[in-house]
Write a structure and sequence with these properties.
By secondary structure, the chain is mainly α. It has helices at about 15-35, 45-60, 70-90.
């Protein structure tokens, strides 16, 4: 299969796709690090990074027609951050 014809097996093609992957990877690293208390970092800033990455991924999929496996994989932590933040807003402790 030619990677040029199968966009799923390739890497992201747009700058927005790469930014969304980078923000979501940073969110994942910071979220795991703060849960295990390896580093002290603001949970609010971590969630902002995750929500921003998730929104950018959705924009990259819808507007820029990104179909890379990396984009679809990073959609999971992005959606988690969005749902987690929405849950904290609707039902605060």
């Amino acid at each position: 299969m030619d990677p040029a014809t199968n966009r799923f097996l390739g890497l992201p093609r747009t700058r927005l796709g790469w930014w969304s992957v980078g923000l979501t990877l940073l969110f994942t690293f910071l979220f795991i690090s703060t849960l295990n208390e390896w580093i002290r970092f603001s949970g609010m800033l971590t969630m902002v990074l995750g929500v921003t990455g998730g929104i950018l991924i959705l924009i990259a999929i819808v507007k820029n027609c990104e179909r890379s496996w990396l984009i679809w994989l990073m959609l999971l932590p992005g959606l988690f951050a969005m749902l987690f933040s929405l849950g904290e807003i609707l039902y605060p402790h």
